[in-house]
């Protein structure tokens, strides 16, 4: 109840304040030293010294502009560096791999996507494939003067301590991710052989991208992110924080039960939502090849667009099942909004009315329909690779000195 | 992201430190001034002055004992006062009203329960009934030298801003609680006419009782509390904090869907869990009168105890449905434990195996069965009235000076 930590020493305080100043500039976009002092509650002298160090290490730049918007002499405007430290994000999904390099300001400066069926492929091969794409991204980043200080790998499965405990749709079970990826990458780019690698669940990374960079989450502090892919990923953000759960496995909405006696799911249980509203179930109901992947979803979208009755029935049915489950989640968590990501984003025009209908009928507060726009399509930029890269950037913002050397400034 | 509050002035710091010292004593049970100084990171002089004020206002007492367990001179042992400031908790449920007075140490010193069918009774009459019971509790509290500084009323429904938005099982819709209760109470006990009244959902209060006073939650930081009554209440505690949700309506597990086409629920939707595992559904399946209330549940328990087949089938069926829904909740938020409260606590020996079976089958991490004892019967003391009283006590601990006058010390 009472935090009783040891007293902070001078070095710790300076470290904390370096982060405070860097985050103040990050959040403000462009800002003078005087304004930083006001916002951060520090003296001008302290801010000058902290800014000096952040400029030297390449975390900040002076834009050359001056601002006289405030009392006193005009000041030079500072912003976070657009070169130097950055984050590398990798998303390994069932039918594609995406990598992203995000700079300190949160802009995605490199983005590469490779479509490939990763099912049934040995995990080591998939990780090598991802490392190859990441190596190419590091090359493009270097050309732009960016130097990622860490890589973060997102996988659609239960990820803990650097290991994928299980990812049924990839067919992975107890697969170590971080070490093999780091080795494959450093073989390709020896200059990055010391790059720290971390890992997380894909839906978590996508939800964080939505929180940090998504247009749909302005003013939204608590939301459910649900992402239709081969499986169905989910993540809960509560008061601006991702809910991880006691073992790091929170958010598994794809295995909430539609019918206890329903079809067998890859997780071992029966009647999971995935079997009713996952990509394969959607394609099957529309009379399409269940293994058709992204082109299949594009075809479903086209057919729904021209009012093909099987396509409309398929999206409506999936939407109803999704809506019933989401109603339960909304009754449990009472979020500000529900974000539809992955293929649900693309299919939202046909899926959303059925989802919304169930929510209106089943959310007990009766508030669902009063607040318009609570069911939203996720931002197209808010994807897992970007969120993963953003996680590295957040670490830099939280403790710049720890990353000063690696940023190579 | 960065808290940029105004600088704390001297009075604010003292106020904060008074709470810090009081909470340190509260958490420690018995403690010397020297030990408080170490734990709270304050100087001995500061602690002496703060303790002096807390003693004067009646928040602390000196036990007379001395302790020489540490270096230096032996010190007098302090503890929180067992007289003076206290909390009054009121639980209005469908077939009973309970009131509880809890002292600063968390002990329930007065506890009164009145069985009464509150369904269909005008809310004003029910609130008057509750006020009468509360008045009796205040009398007993006064005899013990306790003076509640606030009342907190828990109702099984959606409660926000002092109003029950809806409580389908009581038949309440848009009922103001705090004002009418305060007026009824002050008519009976004019000495308490300025007593502040607050309100909350019943399952929230019960979950907080479990968190603060329950034996089952030791070492548990995140749990789901599910309480079978006429309805089914639920509350989520995450990292020691109750999840309230964007509108204060989180935890409505009773309206998660078992079958979208199932029986009509009082909430207006169909196939809610309440219709399969609520008290009436349990009694009906066992061949008992669905309106029999607490005596009906006692009879069900007796019959299950002597292996009556209808009773066993009824608890097994309800347990399976409850287990399917709880699996979804565990997949979503990955808690340390699930606590069965209300009638589920009493029926746990017959209900829990079926619940546990579904959890073992459906929790995707596969971790459910590895961690033993994750499904627990709630502590019998962890009830809503005690949690409601505890909420008042927490307010006192958080800001003692604000309650000094009312405590009448």
Description:
- 2 copies of one chain form a homodimer.
- The first copy, chain A, folds into 3 domains: 10-80, Winged helix-like DNA-binding domain superfamily/Winged helix DNA-binding domain (Arc Repressor Mutant, subunit A), CATH 1.10.10.10; 84-204 and 384-403, ATPase, nucleotide binding domain (Nucleotidyltransferase, domain 5, 2-Layer Sandwich), CATH 3.30.420.40; 219-377, ATPase, nucleotide binding domain (Nucleotidyltransferase, domain 5, 2-Layer Sandwich), CATH 3.30.420.
- In chain A, helix 1 (10-28) crosses helix 3 (44-56), helix 4 crosses helix 5 and helix 10 crosses helix 12 (348-362).
- A 5-stranded mixed sheet of chain A has the order 5-4-3-6-10. Chain A has a 5-stranded mixed sheet with strand order 13-12-11-14-15, sandwiched between helices.
- In chain A, 41% of the residues lie in helices and 22% in strands.
- Residues 1-6 of chain A have low confidence and may be disordered.
- Chain A is built from 13 helices and 15 strands.
- Chain A has helices spanning 10-28, 33-40, 44-56, 123-143, 178-188, 202-213, 274-277, 279-285, 293-305, 309-333, 343-346, 348-362, 384-398; strands at 60-67, 75-80, 84-92, 96-103, 108-115, 146-155, 158-160, 163-167, 172-176, 197-201, 223-228, 232-238, 241-242, 337-342, 375-377.
- Chain A has 409 residues and is an alpha/beta fold.
- Chain A starts with 9 loop residues before the first helix and ends in an 11-residue tail after the last helix.
- The first copy, chain A, is globular and about 65 Å long.
- At the A-B interface, helix 1, strand 12, helix 10 and helix 12 of A face helix 1, strand 13, helix 10 and helix 12 of B.
């Amino acid at each position: 109840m009472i935090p009783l930590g040891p007293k902070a020493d001078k070095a710790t305080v300076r470290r904390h304040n370096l982060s405070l100043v860097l985050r103040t500039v990050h959040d403000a976009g462009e800002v003078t030293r005087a304004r930083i002092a006001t916002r951060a509650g520090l003296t001008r002298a302290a801010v000058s010294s902290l800014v000096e160090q952040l400029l030297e290490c390449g975390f900040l730049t002076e834009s050359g502009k001056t601002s006289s918007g405030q009392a006193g002499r005009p000041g030079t405007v500072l912003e976070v560096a657009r070169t130097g430290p950055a984050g590398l994000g990798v998303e390994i999904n069932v039918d594609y791999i995406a990598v992203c390099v995000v700079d300190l300001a949160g802009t995605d400066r490199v983005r590469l996507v490779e479509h490939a069926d990763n099912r049934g492929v040995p995990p080591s091969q998939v990780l090598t494939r991802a490392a190859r794409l990441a190596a190419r991204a590091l090359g493009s980043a270097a050309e732009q003067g960016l130097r990622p200080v860490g890589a973060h790998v997102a996988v659609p499965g239960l990820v803990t301590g650097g290991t994928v405990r299980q990812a049924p749709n990839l067919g992975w079970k107890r697969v170590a991710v971080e070490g093999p990826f780091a080795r494959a990458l450093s073989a390709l780019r020896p200059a990055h052989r010391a790059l720290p690698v971390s890992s997380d669940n894909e839906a978590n990374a996508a939800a964080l991208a939505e929180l940090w960079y998504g247009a749909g989450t302005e003013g939204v502090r608590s939301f459910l992110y649900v992402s239709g892919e081969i499986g169905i990923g989910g993540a809960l953000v509560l008061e601006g924080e991702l809910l991880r759960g006691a073992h790091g496995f929170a958010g598994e909405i794809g295995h909430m039960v539609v019918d206890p006696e329903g079809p067998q799911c890859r997780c071992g249980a029966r009647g999971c939502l995935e079997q009713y509203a996952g990509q394969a179930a959607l394609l099957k109901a529309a009379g399409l090849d269940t293994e058709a992947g992204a082109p299949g979803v594009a075809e479903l979208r086209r057919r729904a667009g021209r009012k093909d009755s099987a396509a409309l029935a398929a999206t409506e049915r999936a939407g109803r099942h999704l809506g019933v489950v989401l109603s339960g989640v909304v009754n449990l968590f009472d979020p500000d909004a529900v974000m539809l990501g992955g293929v649900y984003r693309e299919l939202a025009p046909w899926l959303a009315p059925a989802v919304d209908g169930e929510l209106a009928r089943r959310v007990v507060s009766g508030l669902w329909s009063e607040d318009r726009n609570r069911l939203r399509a996720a931002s197209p930029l808010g994807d897992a690779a970007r969120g993963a890269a953003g996680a590295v950037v957040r670490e830099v913002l939280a403790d710049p000195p720890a990353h000063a050397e690696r940023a190579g400034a």
